[in-house]
Design brief:
Largest sheet of chain B: 6 strands, antiparallel, barrel
Shape of chain A: globular
Structural class of chain A: mainly alpha
Helix content of chain A: over 70%
Shape of chain B: elongated
Helix content of chain B: 25-40%
Oligomer: heterodimer
Strand content of chain A: under 5%
Number of helices of chain B: 5
Order of helices and strands of chain A: HHHHHH
Largest sheet of chain A: none
Radius of gyration of chain A: 15 Å
Largest interface: A-B, 25 and 26 residues
Chain lengths: 154, 280
Amino acid sequence: MLLCIVSLLQVFGLSHLTIFDVSPDAISLFLAFIAVTIGQRAGTSFGFAAGVIAGLMSGNMGLSMLARTVEGFIAGFFNIPENSHATSKQKTKRMYSALLTASFLANAVFAAGYNPLGLSPLYRILVLGLLESLLTLILAFIAKRLLMRKTFSD
Amino acid sequence: MRKFFNVFSRHNTWLLFALYCAISIFFIKLQNDDTITRVRTGGIEFSAFITDKLLSYSYLLNLKQENDRLMQVNTDLLARVINLDAAVTDERNSRKITADSTLNASSFIMARVVSRRFSDRENMLLIDAGWKKGIRKDMTVLTPQGLVGRVTTVSENYARVMPVIHTDFKVCVVSDKSGSIGVLSWSGGREFVAQMEHVPISSSLKVNEEIVTSDFSTFSARGIPVGRVVRITPDKLFYTVDVRLAVDFSSLNQVLVAPLIIEPEKAVMTSNNTTEEPLP
């Protein structure tokens, strides 16, 4: 249910906040959060589901499914086990790292499969990918302050 | 068998990932397949429906701006129509005319009626445009439907308008078909009917003719619709003509103020205080 809400928010809301043709990605944030807190398997499954929903709306189902699955899977490597004694700072750091890495790789998959603006692949992957990850990081920062304080507390 | 289950349980995440990737690649390969296309089309339809609904709500928020923009377009069109009507009337009567250069669409000023008093103590309109916006005394006030009145007092941001339905208001008018000239005035009573005076019995004025402002007016541009003849009652030397006014004064909201066209020389010539000058 939350995944549907986040996907709709991304498609009909955040996708309109573009800076240099990129916008922050709420789905990446959600997937990173799920993968880091619950686990890699959950992250991968949620990624696949998010890809299906986003793909249905955008018309690019297969590519969307692949990119989001990869994103959820990669973010899962930064999972914090339940019995971990990590501090709040370490948890936050892991979350941000997961988000940056997964978001960048998902963008690379998207760039490899679909180029609607006819831009250079290298420019799309490096420059736009980094920019999108940065914007998503800012979104994560705001979301952490407002919604995820308890989850990443000591 | 046990080994297989051990491998499976150790690497189930990798296997799940591989399965999802395989399904995704399968969908990419079958992009043009009918079923996939239909599913994709359905998704796009849903997405477009939601976007359309969201856009329609944001349209509601911009209605005021849209309204103002349309009023401006209306202003331009009205000015053109008035110009064309005046030229057609003159041509039909075989009179030599000159284009009404005073009716310049860009010099019309839009204003909103902020107050209306219609009682035995006061009868006037108040508009939200004053000398700051270029309003001057005696400017003609009108709407796309017709003549509203005349500016009588101007302050910085507001102006008082004497409406057509005021006992002191008079304007020279002419009928579009027969060319009968008269003076329009309002003597009280129903606020949608005024009287046209000084129409001689010999005039060929008929019911349903449209009445517009004439060139004889000292303040108003010619060709502005005033109303339509609804009744003609003959008297000894003149007709008593009832004119149903074109403007609905009870529902006035936005008005236009036309630029001033008072010609001092004309005003002097038509007044009684002229001294005859010897011919050169």
